[in-house]
Amino acid sequence: MEDEDKTKAKLIKELKTLRKERGKGVLKDIAKLKQTEEVIQESENRFRELFNNMSSGVAVYEAKDNNKDFIIINFNQAAEKIEKVKKEDVIGESVLKTFPGVKDFGLFATFQEAYKTGKPQHHSIALYKDQRISGWSENYIYKLPSGEIVAIYDDITDYKKVEGNIKKAKDELQMIIDSVPDIILYKNTEDKNIRANKMLDDTLKIPVKDIIGKTTEELFTKG
């Protein structure tokens, strides 16, 4: 009986020790899990800050009906500013409904290509327009491992306006010098012709386009 009591006491002691060690293990697992959750939360916070404070517009889409449509599931602050909409008004909406000119713009086909192939796509500078907004942009499209489509783009409307104004000014200058009854020829520091008027064209019988970019020596050297 005494031996049996000793055996029971020993067993109880071992069980208590085992329970104590198991408790330590559980605490360690909980601490490790909490640490992992904190790391994940920190990463999510960093991503959210980056997403919302990027100067480029970023929109995330989810394919619907075998990529016959794409639903907006995220929209950063730059995109709100570019598109003149509020994030809460477009989340969950079809891109075809929100941006009805997206097919004519060519971007919808780029979405479908990125979704189908999984390869990054570049949508060159183009003018988007519908009844609400219009603007020039350049888009880069990516497919995430989750299957979602991400569009990163920049609004270059102001740049295109400046570019248009410069072209207009150059055209007006050309009209002015073409109206002068004397030969006018502009050269750069490398002696290359950069602008000529119609009188030079008429006198030399050489089209202005063949004069521009050449030096005087190149112009009159016969091959």
TrEMBL record:
Keyword NADP, does the record have it?
no
Task: Report if keyword Coiled coil is assigned.
Answer: yes
Q: What keywords are annotated for this sequence in UniProt?
A: Coiled coil
Name of the featured protein: PAS domain-containing protein
- Species source reads marine sediment metagenome
The chain positions of domain PAS read 43-96
**One Pfam match:** PAS_9
State the coiled-coil residue ranges. 1-53
The cross-references to InterPro entries, in alphabetical order and at most eight, read:
PAS (IPR000014), PAS-like_dom_sf (IPR035965)
Which Gene3D superfamilies does this one have? PAS domain (3.30.450.20)
Record-linked SUPFAM superfamilies: PYP-like sensor domain (PAS domain) (SSF55785)
